[in-house]
Structures are given as C-alpha cells and as structure tokens.
TrEMBL record:
Name the record gives this protein: Uncharacterized protein
Pfam families according to UniProt: adh_short (PF00106)
InterPro entries the UniProt entry points to: NAD(P)-bd_dom_sf, SDR_fam
Domain of life: Eukaryota
Keyword Oxidoreductase: yes
Protein family: Belongs to the short-chain dehydrogenases/reductases (SDR) family.
Keywords: Oxidoreductase
A molecular-function term among this protein's GO annotations: oxidoreductase activity, acting on the CH-OH group of donors, NAD or NADP as acceptor
Length: 363
C-alpha cells in the first residue's frame, strides 16, 4: 500500500472529524464503552467522544489509576462517566511481544500471547457486547430478553487493527497474524450481525440488535507499546497524534460511515475524500481481504510456482500470458497505488492475500 489511499493524508485531527468542530454533538443520546481508556489512544478516544456529547461514557481498562485520570480529564463534558477496572495477573500484563526474532527463534508461549490478547480479547469483547444487546433489548435469539424496545437497537464496534495486518515487517509475525485475523473477524461480524435476520416462517425479525463492525488502523502513535522500538524507527514512523484516531472513531460511529463497515480503514486517510469513493467501495467491495493473482507478482515469483494452477488468462495490458492461476482466484489490477501483498499457500495454487484497495479486472 502506498502511504495513503487518498490524498491528503493526516497526522492530526482536522475539522471534518473534529468532535469540537463539525462533529460536535454527534454522539448525542449514545452510550459509548471504551476499552483501554486509561492511557494513550484509548484516553484520546474517550476525550473525543466526551466532546461529541454522549449520554453515557464508560471507561474500561486494567490500570485503575489511569482510568481515574482519564475520568478527571473529561469530567463535566458528559452527564455520566463510569469506570471499570479489570485486574490482570503478571501473565497478561504485557500487551504483546515485540521480540524482533523470526518464528523459528521465537518462544511459542510469547508468540501465541499476541493472538490471545489481540485476537481472542477482541473476540470476547465483541461476543459479550452483542449478547448483552440481545439480552437487554429482548432479541428472540438471545433466549429470555428483557424486551426493552419494540423496535431495533443498533450498535457499532470499532476494532483496533494495524497496517501490520497487510505490511510485511520481519520479526512481527504473531502481531501481524493477530491483526490480519482481526480484519477478517470484523468482516465476519459485520456480515453475521450487521443486518437483520428474518424468520422465514413468521416473517418477523429474529434479532432486535443490529451490530456493525469496522477495523481501524489508529496510525503510528508513540505509545508505551512501541517503547522497545529503536529510537530512529520511532521518530520516522510514529508521527501521528492520538487525536487523529480519536476523531476518526467518532466519525466511524455515525450512520454516514455505514459504507465502511466490515472493512479496514486507516485513520490517516481523509474521511471526507473517502466518502466520495463510496459507490466504488460498495460496488467493488474494496478494503477487504481478498485472494488474488497478479501479473507482476507472478512474474517475480518465477516458473517453479506457476505450475500450481489450471487456467490460462490473457493480459490486455501486456498482450501476453498473465501467468497460470487457479480458476478460483480472480485477477486484479491496482489503480493509483503500490502493491503490498503477503504470499500464502492455497493449494492447488499460490495465491496472494491482499488487503489493499483493489479493482477487479476480470470476474
């Protein structure tokens, strides 16, 4: 992926997503729960939603002192601020392993911990949130609901992903795998819970809770998690303000951002410009993980890996063979951006897992 999907790119908040500017009052009547709200990006998100005027703001984290500090910073901006404190033991005190070694030299328990914290943690929070909405609002799929509403309640989950989910960084396999899995989990959750389910017998809705999901890269922010990175690396890539991710979260909570649900979004992209691409996003189903085959990539891979497929395709651009590919893989052409791909074995062919925005060349 190039440095951006759309120009301009941002490193700090801007009026279109600013909860004290164009998004002022946009969270009115909403209840917002924020995990990891005790410091860093989570704290910035809490402060942004406070400015957007929600009815209720709930702060959750593992560090009680940090939560109390966040609450004091935003007290008076909303009607009610609650905080929760989850006590973690020493085994989960570390958010993720930033060991720079490869898979073969890694410690299996430390390697797996990234998936336990990032992926399983994300799954458990999403699962409990969805079930709580079903139970409270009386969904027939939740068993004995309270029946608080005769209509539908809509919820939204913003998952924290990363550019590492599509960009190769040596020594970060566990972190990257966990974030790529979060992208996929987001797509599945939005597909499963983001639309109504109608009983074919009665014609009535089975579920009163409709929950949309989106995966967000919060930018390159210099947080405690990045403390082990070399100083020169931190200065080069950790150039984004936490307020940028915070404002983007407020924007993604709005109905106007529905077209981005189930997708990967980078907070450095300009959301106003992204809205102009809405029709293209929806019609071509962009910003999702795809299995693909690409002319240039196959050419670089070379002949040994070109014997796995079964279908010859002709390239209109080169006038020659596009490489041999399995009939289940589509050919894609990138427009206006670089290619960043992760090669994965997908028998009986070699495919490329790609989370870049892409345009189908052939269906």
């Amino acid at each position: 992926m190039s440095s951006s999907l759309l120009q301009p790119t941002h490193h700090d908040t801007y009026p279109f997503i600013d909860p004290s500017d164009q998004l002022a009052g946009s969270a009115k009547g909403k209840s917002v729960l924020i995990t990891g709200a005790g410091l860093g990006i989570g704290r910035a998100i809490a402060e942004a939603f406070a400015l957007a005027g929600p009815e209720r703001l709930v702060l959750v984290g593992r560090r009680e002192a940090g939560l109390r500090e966040t609450r004091e910073r935003i007290r008076g901006k909303v009607g009610l601020v609650g905080d929760g404190f989850v006590v973690g033991d020493g085994e989960v005190a570390r958010d993720c392993d930033l060991d720079g070694g490869g898979c073969a030299d890694s410690d299996p328990e430390m390697w797996w911990r990234d998936l336990e914290v990032n992926l399983k943690g994300t799954y458990l929070v999403a699962r409990r949130y969805i079930r709580a909405l079903r139970e409270y609002y009386g969904s027939t799929t939740a068993g004995n609901g309270h029946g608080r509403t005769e209509g539908k309640v809509e919820g939204r989950i913003i998952h924290v992903s990363s550019n590492a989910s599509w960009r190769y960084v040596p020594g970060r396999s566990s972190y990257a795998a966990s974030k790529l899995a979060i992208n996929s989990l987001t797509e599945y959750l939005d597909g499963e819970e983001g639309s109504d389910v109608v009983d074919s017998t009665t014609g009535h809705s089975k579920n009163t809770a409709i929950v949309r999901s989106v995966a967000l890269h919060p930018g390159g922010v210099d947080t405690d998690l990045a403390a082990t990175l070399p100083e020169d690396v931190r200065k080069r890539i950790l150039i984004d303000k936490p307020e940028l991710a915070a404002g983007t979260c407020v924007y993604l909570s709005l109905p106007r951002a529905d077209f981005l649900m189930g997708r990967f979004v980078n907070c450095t992209w300009d959301m106003e410009e992204l809205e102009k691409q809405r029709e293209r996003m929806e019609s071509q189903d962009l910003l999702k993980s795809k299995v693909m085959d690409t002319v240039a990539i196959l050419a670089r891979i070379g002949p040994p890996l070109l014997h796995c497929g079964s279908v010859q395709q002709k390239s209109e651009e080169t006038g020659g063979d596009n490489g041999i590919q399995d009939s289940r893989a589509a050919a894609y052409r990138m427009q206006g951006t670089d290619w960043w791909n992760i090669a994965v074995p997908l028998c009986p062919t070699i495919a490329l897992l790609q989370t870049e925005h892409s345009t189908p060349q052939q269906q």
